[in-house]
Amino acid sequence: MRATAWETWRIYQQLPALQHYVLMARDRPHVKVYDRVDGIWSGFRVVREMNAALELFAI
């Protein structure tokens, strides 16, 4: 992650209502998803397939 993306993530993770933080690459099929479950950020998952479905439980 670039420094600006990291700084943004540090701010966003403090928002109590935020359940998912999604980063998408512009030049390839690559999506990182950070999920908050029961108030705890549970790492991240990566989606790389063009035809993959992205499930966000809070939506």
Question: In short, what is this structure?
Answer:
The chain is of the alpha+beta class and 59 residues long. 17% of the residues lie in helices and 34% in strands. The protein has one domain.
Notes on the protein architecture:
- The protein has one helix spanning 3-12, and strands at residues 20-24, 31-37, 40-47.
- The protein is an alpha+beta fold.
- It has one domain.
- It has a three-stranded antiparallel sheet, with no helix packed on it.
- Strand 1 (20-24) and strand 2 (31-37) form a beta hairpin.
- The relative contact order is 0.20.
- The mean pLDDT is 90.
Whole-angstrom Rg: 12 Å
Give the fraction of residues assigned to helices. Answer: 10-25%
Total of DSSP H or I helical runs spanning 4+ residues: 1
Instruction: Please report the total strand number as a whole number.
Output: 3
Distance between the termini: 25 Å
Domains (count): 1
| Apparent shape | flat
Outline the low-pLDDT stretches: none
Record the strand order, biggest sheet. 1-2-3
Question: What does the average pLDDT come to?
Answer: 90
Could you describe the largest sheet, including whether it forms a barrel? 3 strands, antiparallel
Structural class: alpha+beta
- What amount of the residues lies in strands? 25-35%
- Reading the helices and strands in chain order gives HEEE
Task: Record the SSE blueprint.
Layout lengths: L2 H10 L7 E5 L6 E7 L2 E8 L12
Antiparallel strand pairs: 1-2, 2-3
Features:
flat, 17% helix, 1 helix, 59 residues, 34% strand, alpha+beta
